[in-house]
Design brief:
This protein is α+β, with helices and mostly antiparallel strands. It has a single domain, classed as Nuclear Transport Factor 2, Chain: A, CATH 3.10.450. Helix content is 20%, strand content 40%. It is built from three helices and six strands; from the N terminus they run H-H-E-E-H-E-E-E-E. It has a six-stranded mixed beta sheet with strand order 2-1-6-5-4-3. The chain is globular.
Length: 169
Amino acid sequence: MTAVLENQITREAVEAFLYLEARYLDDRDFDRWVELYHPDAEFWMPAWADDGELTRDPMTEISLIYYANRGGIEDRVFRIKTDRSSATSLPEPRTGHNITNIEVTAQRGQEVDVRFNWFTLYFRYNTLDTYFGYSEYTIDFSGGTPQILKKKVVLKNDYIHHVVDIYHV
């Protein structure tokens, strides 16, 4: 599974990138976190419909989070950093992102599709919450630093105590 073939992205390289993204979120280093996204990167967290199925189209159905490109992600980070966010206020939340079951599901040249499970521990106001689910990414490894081209996050919690934000997942 970890064999390196000609032009093959290793599982270790994928893991290192995912761990770096998680660390940036946990450290609240949002400026460096945003740089992991390609300018045209889509970030989508579909909602669960009444029939128990995920919504399929962010343009016509409700989503928990949807940004068509990095500009939306940058705006979200700006709001968090300037206290213009309904999800964030003082004291700032603390998070611990944990990633498991990392799979490379496809590779096209220097682009890889990845699926992994995750859970995030979230602490604020002496309360600990857990968020969990899975994510599917397309990552471009062709440049000096890999960049996320597409990110789909599936949140599996049935009950959410707060407004969900980028650092929860």
